[in-house]
């Protein structure tokens, strides 16, 4: 039978919820995408929690929250420990996206679902692959090959190709076939007739009228608002579609010679652009060629100012301005606060470039007609003062004293246990090493920085007890363990306590490597006692609201055309509204393939191939007599054999017991008549097309006959016919024709 394939949605089917799917291939479990939404609702992850421990590998397709937002939480809470695979941009920009999400929420709430350390820990397990790189899995996944391919939509966005025993399983969601300013489109030729295709129905009902001048219309709307004295807010993601918008605005500002300020405001804005500058090889052909010719980086932004805190924006000069601020959902982040400030002014405009997530403020404002007033929660973190600060400090002091006392008691018990009977408490010359009457601070001073107790020390002002025994320096048995290299080090002696650790040192650079944005670093380094103050507001929405589609996804018509070209044997539809999913399902059943599935949450669908495929082993005795011929990147040979079984019971091809009769000669290759025409011309033969045939010299004709229009491509039953009298030209041209093939 064919390769066993089962698909189980964990989130994101028949709705627009985050994407997360379990795909099992011959018992090897892939978790493809691990998304969350801007509400960070743990109930969405319940199906994932039930299977997290069985996951063998995680594949991430895009760098936004909907595709990878739950990864830190799942690794911390659900025991997800499988290796993770993504492209370099998805890894870097996904990390910054999660930092921005955490910092945006920590500033306005007691967010505790995950920490910056949890984010770092999750992303450290990611293996980065380049486009079209075949990565062979080992162990339980032996024989499975994974490869990322260009998806468009977001920088580093991936269509995953999983291959086992010659059968392909393709995961392609949120792809874009169109080339954009900073991204190439999907390469459809890489996915022809896969055994299984998993794709989304998100845009199935969205048939765009593509406008060649959409970028200019976008800029004109912004310019119109600015010239009328208003401000423009663009709620954007952290490091995804905002990159395309920045390039559009850079180009428009240069063409129109505008001087209005543009601000890109997120907690990680500087780090985002710094990394993007180094990802040119992942971008569109036009950007890479431009860099090769001029050495000018497209993301050396000349008209955009990068900001990492709102204070800098508030200090900016008064007057019309454009602000691109996260988050796109308006649920949190700088965009939320700016919207509340600007919404009441009719001169201002909020320009949405993507559909808001379901149930968010952005989605509500995009309704038709939009609400005239909305209730929002304004929160901010403020330092404690007065009685609250005193109470907080007293509580902290009490906790520290309790911890110090507990540590002292534990150390005392350890010392007593280690000395045991060696310490004779009746001996007047023995001093109590635990020094139980000393304060914890004195103990730390006397014990030294390692806190290891009294070792080889002298005590000033030593007064011997009144006895006949002469005064002596105190001696304590050294209980340290030694090996050939000296004293064995106890790592616990050097561990810095959490409360004394500079937390920012763990996150310098916005990731594990680089320099954190100043605003983000100040937020983390700020250890002053604080609290979150919230209040409900009713915001009168008098500003203009506009939605323009810059999501960078293929629309419904394009999706249907692409699916027909890919022509999968079996199709699984995920992520889209119920209406869009059913619409695309019915279309595909009629026009794409007879096996179309749209499973529900936690419903396992078996999409195992119906092909009668068998695995066979080529015996060494057979292979020792096979002669291979080179054909491009491959080697081919003709084999006459019979099917038998090895000692292990596996099917094997064995040599025939008697000599096989000679087989008819086989010509292997693909002849293209235009190319062959040029070849013959280079040999001095006069050649011209006569209809669909090739007229060679005066007497010889070459033509292709048979059906060349079979679905899925290929030559079908085509044959090449050479006609003419048996003359010198005939044999010469036939020899040239044979040279274009490999003869078996």
TrEMBL record:
<dbReference type="Pfam" id="PF13299">
    <property type="entry name" value="CPSF100_C"/>
</dbReference>
<comment type="similarity">
    <text>Belongs to the metallo-beta-lactamase superfamily. RNA-metabolizing metallo-beta-lactamase-like family. CPSF2/YSH1 subfamily.</text>
</comment>
<keyword id="KW-0694">RNA-binding</keyword>
<dbReference type="InterPro" id="IPR025069">
    <property type="entry name" value="Cpsf2_C"/>
</dbReference>
<dbReference type="InterPro" id="IPR011108">
    <property type="entry name" value="RMMBL"/>
</dbReference>
<keyword id="KW-0507">mRNA processing</keyword>
<dbReference type="InterPro" id="IPR027075">
    <property type="entry name" value="CPSF2"/>
</dbReference>
<protein>
    <recommendedName>
        <fullName>Cleavage and polyadenylation specificity factor subunit 2</fullName>
    </recommendedName>
</protein>
<dbReference type="Pfam" id="PF16661">
    <property type="entry name" value="Lactamase_B_6"/>
</dbReference>
<dbReference type="GO" id="GO:0005847">
    <property type="term" value="C:mRNA cleavage and polyadenylation specificity factor complex"/>
</dbReference>
<dbReference type="InterPro" id="IPR036866">
    <property type="entry name" value="RibonucZ/Hydroxyglut_hydro"/>
</dbReference>
<dbReference type="Pfam" id="PF10996">
    <property type="entry name" value="Beta-Casp"/>
</dbReference>
<feature type="domain" description="Beta-Casp">
    <location>
        <begin position="242"/>
        <end position="365"/>
    </location>
</feature>
<dbReference type="InterPro" id="IPR001279">
    <property type="entry name" value="Metallo-B-lactamas"/>
</dbReference>
<dbReference type="InterPro" id="IPR022712">
    <property type="entry name" value="Beta_Casp"/>
</dbReference>
<keyword id="KW-0539">Nucleus</keyword>
<dbReference type="GO" id="GO:0003723">
    <property type="term" value="F:RNA binding"/>
</dbReference>
<dbReference type="Pfam" id="PF07521">
    <property type="entry name" value="RMMBL"/>
</dbReference>
<dbReference type="GO" id="GO:0006398">
    <property type="term" value="P:mRNA 3'-end processing by stem-loop binding and cleavage"/>
</dbReference>
<dbReference type="InterPro" id="IPR035639">
    <property type="entry name" value="CPSF2_MBL"/>
</dbReference>
